[in-house]
UniProtKB/TrEMBL annotation:
CDD domains the record matches: SDR_c
Protein name as it appears in the record: 3-oxoacyl-[acyl-carrier protein] reductase
Family, per entry: Belongs to the short-chain dehydrogenases/reductases (SDR) family.
Originating organism: Sphingopyxis indica
PANTHER family recorded: 15-HYDROXYPROSTAGLANDIN DEHYDROGENASE [NAD(+)] (PTHR44229)
GO cellular component, one term: cytoplasm
Alphabetical UniProt keywords: Oxidoreductase
This protein's record includes keyword Oxidoreductase: yes
Keyword Transmembrane helix among UniProt keywords: no
InterPro entries: NAD(P)-bd_dom_sf, SDR_fam
GO molecular function, one term: oxidoreductase activity, acting on the CH-OH group of donors, NAD or NADP as acceptor
Amino acid sequence: MEIKGKRAIVTGAAGGIGRATAVLLAARGVAEIALVDVKEEALAETAHLVEAEGARAMAHALDLSDIPATEAWFKVHGDVDILHNNAGVVSGLPQFPDVDAARIRWIVDVNLTSLVAATQIAVQAMKARGGGVIVNTVSTVALGTGFYDAMYATTKAAVMMFTRCCAPLKDECNVRVAGMLPGLVATPILDTTGAGGKSEWMKQVLANNEACEPEDIAAGVIRLIEDDGLAGGDWVAVRRLGGRIDYQWGHAGTV
């Protein structure tokens, strides 16, 4: 897809990957971007950065764990060409099985239910306007055999499967749904794995792995958006290995 002049939505846009993607979309010439997050002050800062790149920015404070509110918002604002379903949360402490049921529902709703709802509404609008591209932020944990944060890994594996199941939408609706699988990324989400900071298990992960920057992931998102030669359900995993960014490409029918 040619990005210039298009309309986009980026969720989880207050920082990290969402902010980096929004700014890069603006730099590539997108006309306007709706920025979605619960963090209003940081969201306003993202809007300022986007507008500095020449795009119109609209900041929307929205709690994606509130599914009726999410559905209502997307029905009003979801008529766009590009959707980056990027918002996501980790469990923090306590971990499963000690976490309470309300927090489990919150994690599932932010990471999965709201993403499905947003995609459903956006696909219908994109089909009516001639097509579009949706990029879902997954995680490389979806390619593994397990992860310390059970609920995060479970929801991300579900997003991976959902992305694959959306592969036929390219032919049926001219809407291409793709998956972005970041490896370890230096974003504020790492500081929410423990009680008031990084958990001990996250410190060990950081000690044994190289972290990407949000801009590295944003560049991959742009590649997914721009390349209409990709099939529906295609995905790319992005990691930093030996000081260099490594891309692992995959298709809906592969692991």
